[in-house]
């Protein structure tokens, strides 16, 4: 006995097959509702049902006023490693980092987080993290300049890793405390570097990094592109 396949399911399977075969790539726009209605001889409701299912399953993403697109593969943070780079590599991404600026600053609020004197110069390294050639995060790391000097920090251009640069001066992160929230990017330059619009909502992460003596060695702030980033936490009872 033959069973009729629901039209919405057929649309879903055809789109999934096109994605898996590479015919549709992340970021590609899929056919519009009107095109699919004619192609499959179905109603608007049927096409919207297919789109809704595929969006919920993570295959597609809808952008109001622009259309429906193949979703980008997200970097899923398992919170199992101190190194963001290591987690990306474990998930098969090609990674890179572009340094935005390295500078000495004084900032009373950040100094308080680092538990140092308000007038003590702080080394700041700002960089853009890339996965598969696309910007996914903008990170700013702050450390006491007595731990890492402006000159020593220049090696980050070669190491492509802030923690490897710290390791060169025998500063070793052991554990971190992270706070997650949602924050819009109001800085035009940061938004440009992340290739997103100003005031776009992002995951905003504040991190305190500790050494083996439980002393704070770094305070960091990171904007993550929400289209590329998610967090998974396993809780055992």
Number of strands: 10
CATH superfamily of the largest domain: Chorismate lyase-like
Number of domains: 2
How much of the sequence lies in strands comes to 25-35%
CATH structural fold name of the largest domain: Chorismate lyase
The main β sheet shows up as:
6 strands, antiparallel
* Average pLDDT figure: 86
Looking at the structure, what is the overall shape? elongated
Known CATH architecture of the largest domain = 3-Layer(aba) Sandwich
Unreliable runs: 75-82
Can you describe what's shown?
- This protein is an alpha+beta fold and 237 residues long.
- The strands form three sheets. The chain has a six-stranded antiparallel β-sheet. A two-stranded antiparallel sheet has the order 1-2. A two-stranded parallel sheet has the order 3-10.
- It is elongated and about 70 Å long.
- The N and C termini lie far apart (47 Å).
- About 3% of the residues have low confidence.
Summarize the structure.
By secondary structure, this protein is an alpha+beta fold. It has helices spanning 7-21, 33-40, 44-56, 84-90, 108-113, 150-153, 156-159, 162-167, 188-193; strands at residues 60-63, 67-70, 75-77, 95-105, 122-131, 134-144, 175-184, 201-210, 216-224, 229-231.
Search tags:
2 domains; 6-stranded antiparallel sheet; 9 helices; 237 residues; single chain; 10 strands; 29% helix; alpha+beta; Arc Repressor Mutant, subunit A; Chorismate lyase
How are the SSEs ordered, and which strands pair?
Layout: H1 7-21, H2 33-40, H3 44-56, E1 60-63, E2 67-70, E3 75-77, H4 84-90, E4 95-105, H5 108-113, E5 122-131, E6 134-144, H6 150-153, H7 156-159, H8 162-167, E7 175-184, H9 188-193, E8 201-210, E9 216-224, E10 229-231
Parallel strand pairs: 3-10
Antiparallel strand pairs: 1-2, 4-5, 5-6, 6-9, 7-8, 8-9
Helix pairs in contact: 1-3, 2-3
Protein name: GntR family transcriptional regulator
Keywords: DNA-binding, Transcription, Transcription regulation
Domain HTH gntR-type: 5-73
